[in-house]
Inverse folding.
């Protein structure tokens, strides 16, 4: 049943910054080509670390999207978010003016936020004392910084802020943004996620948690969701942003409607700081809640963009959870693990993967799970190696985070 | 230190903080209206001036410095002798 009012929520614009492409088009082409964005870390010295690979964003020029006075005052995670948001706004042709400014909100998820600035600021404090700290660091080292910058740049004066649910942040942001529109708080939200957690601190600490792949000698084959030989996820950086709008407002202005967001489910495992619940209770409930919210049956789902991190625990639990929720229909569903190519963009992952899910709706192609040479569950279709053509009308995107945060979205091809 | 030297060093600081090329930093320019230096940039510039010239600028005084010429005069009159 539809539990939140009558307003329908549609996607009218999309933007991405990823290790495999700096626009939706180049990102999607890379996914269909099965191209990996993982390589040796170049942004700092990894000689002391057990993990030396990541999905870095390369070739990104912040000045294409913002003035230097802005770019030097914000962390790269926020630069990526601003860039993705500007792309999405251009895509949607939404104009923010005096008439609608207070009806537009910004919600940007991030798992770790501006960690590079926090790290460099801490080192400065240690070396030079507080007078060495730039005056803008106070604002720039907060998790809401990206949302604030986007609101400032667009002149959007509705509610703005951050959502932080670890690896589910991007999905949570879109889901909560959908609710803001359904409730009637606003008519449009620029929602998404961003992270740039490729610092010695992030890589070092996550390696210590034993969550990262150590396949340093073969970076492009390190991220291998659902494959038996997987040994952890690959940290990656990026951002994804979507323009969500009330369907009527979007139709009235003749906006390009890409898809409808029809369901959102969010739960917590309340089980362990990093490990998922062994029976995937929270994940199952998130998927079921999203299906119920969308008023669609499990058998209606044509495609799943999996969380699929390439950790032993996530992938085993997620595959079992999909089997429990979808029953006999599970083997019919093409399940894509695009982190095999992008790596794990943490707070950006959910937003970017929702965009991949929308692209599958629009094009009839589902992206592959590369490196899935020998799947642990041989009865499911993980779309190994090559994309597959499927008529996708309704699709699901999963995100499950550390601390047991689970979030699932369901999108549908838009029919007025 | 000559005013020309101070201007050249100041231009370098302004370039670093707000990205303006050195030749835009001229004595008659207004910091906020002409050079787009906001309150946060002003704090950064004053910290850099202290490091480079050994001249501290209390916040109340910084708020009164409106032009490049005023900043140069402030540095010139407060600079310790012998600072290169």
């Amino acid at each position: 049943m539809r539990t939140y009012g009558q307003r329908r929520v549609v996607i009218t614009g999309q933007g991405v910054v990823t290790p495999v492409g700096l626009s939706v088009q180049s990102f999607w082409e890379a996914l269909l080509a099965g191209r990996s964005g993982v390589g040796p870390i170049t942004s700092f010295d990894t000689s002391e670390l057990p993990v030396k690979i990541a999905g870095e964003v390369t070739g990104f020029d912040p000045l294409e999207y913002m003035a230097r006075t802005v770019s030097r005052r914000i962390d790269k995670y926020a630069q990526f978010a601003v860039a993705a948001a500007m792309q999405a706004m251009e895509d949607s042709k939404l104009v923010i003016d005096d008439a609608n400014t207070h009806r537009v909100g910004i919600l940007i998820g991030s798992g770790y936020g501006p960690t590079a600035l926090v790290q460099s600021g801490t080192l400065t404090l240690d070396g030079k004392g507080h007078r060495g700290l730039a005056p803008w660091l106070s604002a720039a080292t907060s998790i809401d910084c990206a949302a604030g910058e986007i609101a400032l740049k667009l002149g959007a004066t509705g509610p703005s802020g951050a959502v932080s649910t670890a690896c589910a942040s991007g999905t949570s942001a879109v889901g909560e943004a959908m609710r803001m529109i359904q409730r009637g708080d606003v008519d449009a939200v620029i929602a998404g996620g961003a992270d740039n957690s490729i610092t010695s601190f992030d890589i070092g600490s996550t390696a210590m948690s034993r969550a990262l792949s150590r396949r340093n000698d073969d970076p492009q084959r390190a991220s291998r969701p659902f494959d038996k030989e997987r040994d952890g996820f690959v940290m990656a950086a990026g951002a994804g942003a979507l323009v969500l709008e009330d369907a009527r407002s979007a139709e009235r202005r003749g906006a390009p409607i890409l898809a409808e967001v029809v369901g959102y489910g969010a739960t917590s495992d309340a089980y362990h700081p990093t490990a998922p619940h062994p029976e995937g209770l929270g994940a199952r409930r998130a998927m079921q809640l999203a299906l119920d919210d969308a008023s669609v049956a499990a058998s209606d789902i044509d495609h799943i963009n999996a969380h699929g991190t390439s950790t032993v625990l996530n992938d085993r639990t997620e595959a079992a959870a999909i089997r429990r929720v979808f029953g006999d229909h599970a083997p019919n569903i093409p399940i894509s693990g695009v982190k095999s190519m992008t790596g794990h963009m943490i707070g950006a992952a959910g937003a970017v993967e929702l965009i991949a899910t929308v692209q599958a709706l629009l094009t009839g192609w589902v992206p592959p799970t590369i490196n899935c040479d020998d799947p642990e569950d041989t009865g499911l279709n993980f779309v190994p190696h090559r994309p597959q053509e499927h008529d996708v009308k309704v699709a699901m995107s999963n995100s499950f985070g550390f601390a047991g945060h689970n979030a699932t979205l369901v999108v549908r091809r838009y029919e007025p | 230190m000559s005013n020309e030297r101070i201007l050249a060093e100041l231009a370098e600081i302004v370039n670093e903080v707000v990205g303006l090329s050195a030749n835009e930093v001229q004595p008659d320019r207004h910091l906020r209206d002409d050079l787009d230096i906001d309150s946060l940039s002003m704090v950064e510039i004053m910290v850099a001036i202290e490091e480079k010239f050994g001249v501290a600028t209390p916040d109340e005084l910084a708020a009164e410095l409106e032009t490049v010429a005023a900043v140069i005069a402030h540095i010139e009159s407060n600079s310790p002798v012998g600072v290169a």
Remarks:
- Chain A has a mean pLDDT of 96.
- Chain A touches chain B through nine residues (CB under 8 Å).
- Residues 360 and 366 of chain A are 5 Å apart (CA to CA).
- Residues 264-412 of chain A form a domain with the Peroxisomal Thiolase; Chain A, domain 1 fold (CATH 3.40.47.10).
